[in-house]
Amino acid sequence: MRCEIVAIGTELLLGQIVDTNSSWMGERLALAGIDSHFQVKVGDNQARIVDTIRHALSRSDAVILCGGLGPTQDDITREAIAEVMDTELVRDHAMGDRIRRGFEARGRRFTENNLRQADCPVGASFIPQMPGTAPGLVCPVGERVIYAVPGVPFEMREMMEGTILPDLQRRAGVTAVIKSRVLKSWGESESRLAELLEERIAALDRTGNPTIAFQASGIEGLKIRVTAKAADAAAADALIAEEEANVRAIVGDAIFATDEQTMESVVLDLLRERGHSLAVAESVTGGLVGARLTAVPGASDVFRGAVVSYASEVKFDVLGVPEGPVVSTDAAKAMALGVRERLGADVGIATTGVAGPAKQEGHPPGTVFLGLAYRDYTEALRVRLPGDRRRVREYAVISVLNLLRLRISNSSRSPELR
Amino acid sequence: MRCEIVAIGTELLLGQIVDTNSSWMGERLALAGIDSHFQVKVGDNQARIVDTIRHALSRSDAVILCGGLGPTQDDITREAIAEVMDTELVRDHAMGDRIRRGFEARGRRFTENNLRQADCPVGASFIPQMPGTAPGLVCPVGERVIYAVPGVPFEMREMMEGTILPDLQRRAGVTAVIKSRVLKSWGESESRLAELLEERIAALDRTGNPTIAFQASGIEGLKIRVTAKAADAAAADALIAEEEANVRAIVGDAIFATDEQTMESVVLDLLRERGHSLAVAESVTGGLVGARLTAVPGASDVFRGAVVSYASEVKFDVLGVPEGPVVSTDAAKAMALGVRERLGADVGIATTGVAGPAKQEGHPPGTVFLGLAYRDYTEALRVRLPGDRRRVREYAVISVLNLLRLRISNSSRSPELR
Question: What percent of chain B is predicted at pLDDT more than 70?
């Protein structure tokens, strides 16, 4: 079963919008066991859209068109499909009423041109999911099929999950359910993870189900994806849970989160469970730790605040760091302790270091000290982080949050934090 | 002159990497006056790469291949080009030596497989720019041409600017130089800008040179791109400068930056010129203002630090905000004044508000108060920001920096800040 993706819109060709939809769809197709060998971007030109669809159908079983389903004169995906199907567009009045009611429900002004979205090629049908005001289409072409979805990401995703992926699997004769879980890791290199999991992967290769795959995700660490195929969702979940336990037993606490969890959401949850509040002292990260923590709704239960002590005098005056070198173990400890006391929190963490481009206090860019304080217990860790200014800062954020995670969840190193 | 872009790599189809290279290339082609009607992604499969190149050459004058030029067995772009050209690959020993020396100069271990990168199809030539270790190729196919560049963005960009764009323009018979400048604006809607500039755009439409185009860039505001064509770069620059002055006279101080400048770099430069230091008090933005300012190298000249007063008690205890409502004009002023005094800075700015999803102190999400303090002068501004939690926070950051920019650069409102 082969399925191509065609993203439609002149703004994509001009680089005004980056086509992230196709990437997301490509990933979902692969996880559903559907091959996707080509992805094409084409502008708002009917002849070229028609040529692209015909070429795709000549070598694939299905094609997903994304974009060009709106109400304006530029939106010509429906017309292009009708031309490929050699048929007419017919306005569906029930859909027209639904679109009109959708506008009213959102308090948006309805204009007649929106009824163009109710046009449907003869022989095609609307996709049941319709989270926005533009319906998607399923359009059979002999044994093959064209799907059309809007370019608005959440609308596209709901239609993919609800209709297109199940329909493609049905057409491919896939009766099994394929599910996957992402285990997110921090602190081990890809080659080290591959080495640790070598035997496990070899064992899985013999059965072919479940499978394990690695995926680098830059500043967010390395992902380990466990994918399982089974007769139903419960059986697939059970296979995944068993394999997740195997992987965790081997890789240990380098795994910090699963699926939609992030390092910051995990740290906040751990602190919340223990009833601990958090304060942050930031130098090299300049506010990024606070920014990431407060991106999580409900962070205010746990996070009291931060002091961004960029100038040395702010470290001395506000945080009570003793005068002396500020890129050091002692400064990191004093910052963590100072912010914990100053902001009245149970736990303090701190970052100080050199993001670059210039050296500081004799340290090269990438040298970062992470501090942690809980009551009178303090510790600091020196790390060497790779990359340019931006990457050093981002790595420092996830590193200090990871240090805190390990100390809260792991009893062996800092029992005071339990 | 038509040029297609083909991005090569299975990881692109699987959604493991988002193809931002094609977007950048599409933008540069449009600016150079070259049409690009199709952009394709294809995996590391020689037959499919060959088919894609042939199809592209059947309808376009040129094709740029991006990716698959590395040293591994997956990197088969060279082989695919040779097949399309119906010729052989020949190893270029001078290039081999250059690649070897490149590894030595970077202190990286050289392995023999890297010499594959010195293979060149008969009749093709290497692109002179070579900032990495993989050379690019120019491959004539009759009157048409294939270019190949590595997928590493900075390598690709240098080859595009240095060889491919000038070569395409020469082939298209474009003798003129096309240059452009981006004017970044904040605070006016696209329809308002279009209304303000309507007469100017109509006047330019009559001559066709220079041109003005709008481009929405989300949380960074609206861009106005001025593009001019002239016999040489100096003449194009003069046309742009004249039109920039016209646009600035109409739009006024909604324009905050040009080209590579950002809101934060402009604010830091303005403060540096005046010898003013800055401190920030953040509640709703949680550290994002500090994070953006410190992303700019050299921020430490100006930026002393920030207090992220997320909990109300931190506002009261650390910043000296009087107890009472914390999402208010008074709180925003007191936060700005408090952080200015506490961190010993000339200027203080502050954000407090509701990012959502829940209401706070009776205010709906999107309600944000911006504070500013200089010596004893304080002011606060209430704004209503659209979007979800993430967008409200990002808009709040740029809004408070923009308030500071206007007050520093504009004498009419706050003369104390000059």
Answer: 97
Pick the CATH number of A263-417 from 3.60.20.30, 3.40.50.280, 1.10.287.90, 3.90.950.20: 3.90.950.20
Which residue, B35, B297, B131, B53, is CA-closest to A13?
B35
Check residue A410 and give its pLDDT: 67
Interface A:B, Cβ pairs < 8 A: 217
pTM above 0.80, yes or no: yes
A29–chain B nearest CA distance, Å: 8
Give the pLDDT confidence of A70-114 residue by residue, as tens digits: 888 889 999 999 999 999 999 999 999 999 998 888 777 888 889
Q: How far is A302 from chain B (nearest CA, A)?
A: 9
Q: Is the pLDDT of residue B216 over 90?
A: no
Cα(B223)–Cα(A302) distance, integer angstroms: 39
Nearest residue to A55 via CA among B52, B84, B145: B52
Write the residue in B287, B299, B356 that is nearest to A289 by C-beta: B287
One of 3.40.980.10, 3.20.20.140, 2.170.150.20, 3.50.50.60 is the CATH number of A3-171, namely 3.40.980.10
- Find out whether A12 and A29 touch, Cβ atoms under 8 Å: no
Tell whether B47 is within 8 A of chain A (Cβ).
Answer: no
**Which ranges in B132-262 belong to alpha helices (H)?**
153-159, 165-171, 190-196, 198-207, 233-251
Interface of A with B in 354-383 (CB under 8 A): 356-358
Q: What is the pLDDT of residues A361-378, one digit of tens each?
A: 999 999 999 999 998 899
Shortest Cα–Cα distance, B299 to chain A (Å)? 9
B313 contacts chain A (CB < 8 A) = yes
